[in-house]
Design a protein that fits this description.
This protein is mainly alpha-helical. Helix content is 60%, strand content 0%. It is elongated and about 55 Å long.
Length: 100
């Protein structure tokens, strides 16, 4: 297998420029940032444990697959914490929140 030509590499680079990977937790996260991170991790775990597609998970949560994708990649700046909890309750109806 030969190394790709420069034109092919340029096509790949162009696609990657638009790609949005998973965000990491900030270096010194606030309590709220940690909480929201943990919520996202619960969505990731649910998808993995149930081997669901984005469409299947979205149907359970009542949202489209694009929003599910954002949540799974921790790109949640457009979601309130309340909204994330509502989505989580759709997956885990017995969800209980504990402060402290």
């Amino acid at each position: 297998m030969a190394f790709p030509k420069e034109s092919e590499l340029n096509k790949i680079r162009k696609k990657l420029e638009k790609a949005e990977g998973t965000l990491m937790m900030p270096e010194n996260p606030t309590t709220l940032e940690k909480f929201r991170w943990d919520l996202c991790q619960k969505f990731v775990k649910y998808k993995h444990d149930h081997d669901l597609t984005l469409e299947q998970m979205g149907k359970i949560m009542g949202i489209d697959k694009g929003k599910v994708s954002k949540i799974l990649r921790h790109r949640i700046e457009d979601f309130s914490t309340d909204r994330l909890i509502v989505y989580l309750e759709a997956l885990y109806p017995e969800t209980k929140l504990k402060v402290g």
